[in-house]
Amino acid sequence: MKRRAWLVAGMWMSASMLAPTDAAAAPGPRTQVLIEAYGDSTTLGITCSDGHCGPQAQNAVSYLQDELQARHGERVRVTNYGVGNTMAAQLRDGTGNRRAGPTAGLPWQERLAFSPAQIVLINYGINEVMQNQTPEQFYTAETALVKTARALGKEPVLQTANPMPDNRLNARLATMVAMTRRVAAEQQVPLVDQFAYISSLPDWKTLMSDGAHPKPGLYRLKAGQDFQVVEPLVRRLLDGSP
User: Fold this and answer.
1) How confident is the prediction along the chain (242 residues), in pLDDT tens digits per residue?
2) Domains with residue ranges and CATH for the chain
3) Which residues form the SGNH hydrolase-type esterase domain (predicted)?
4) Helix, strand, coil: what percent of the chain each, to 5?
């Protein structure tokens, strides 16, 4: 317990030097906007080829940073904290992969208190289907993630999961997507509806590398959708607009 208390105290001091406690609500224009992306393997950027799956540099988070920096320069940075095979409840409870950042083993509230980010992206749903979570459990977890982020002065942005080629699994995923939309509406937070967008693309299944993970080209398209929602938030912070 003493070792954990020392670690937490040390991380708190480091975080307090990086940013004000209520970074997103700080008055005046920002000199830098930090964004953190949380989610599963589709956030991490897994792509499969010839039976091998692994994280790729060409993923939605890296493409989003490229687009934001093309507009605003290096004043904007996006950090990828995606972890494969994880669910929203694990992020909330701090029970996911502990290698995803120095505070990854902490519950969401503690972890986010140490974060200097002003904007946090949240993308889950697929593993909730694969691990037999109920839509209600998913709704509860995502609601907690959003409320905690808001309470700590962050701007949460929800993302629906990309669809899955298997029709049976995709039907179950649609119930999770409905929960993400519900949370966004109830909590009045921005939503990137990747599920609806990708489902509307002709032959979208050909853009998938396997049953869950996009090819790099689809990751780029996903980043374009993220950019449309996130860039106005970034611009507002850089301009100091209310």
Assistant:
1) 444 443 444 444 444 334 444 444 445 778 999 999 999 999 999 999 988 999 999 999 999 999 999 999 999 999 999 999 999 999 999 997 655 566 768 999 999 999 999 999 999 999 999 999 999 999 999 999 999 999 999 999 999 999 999 999 999 999 999 999 999 999 999 999 999 999 999 999 999 999 999 999 999 999 999 999 999 999 999 998 77
2) 30-239 (3.40.50.1110)
3) 37-220
4) 55, 15, 30
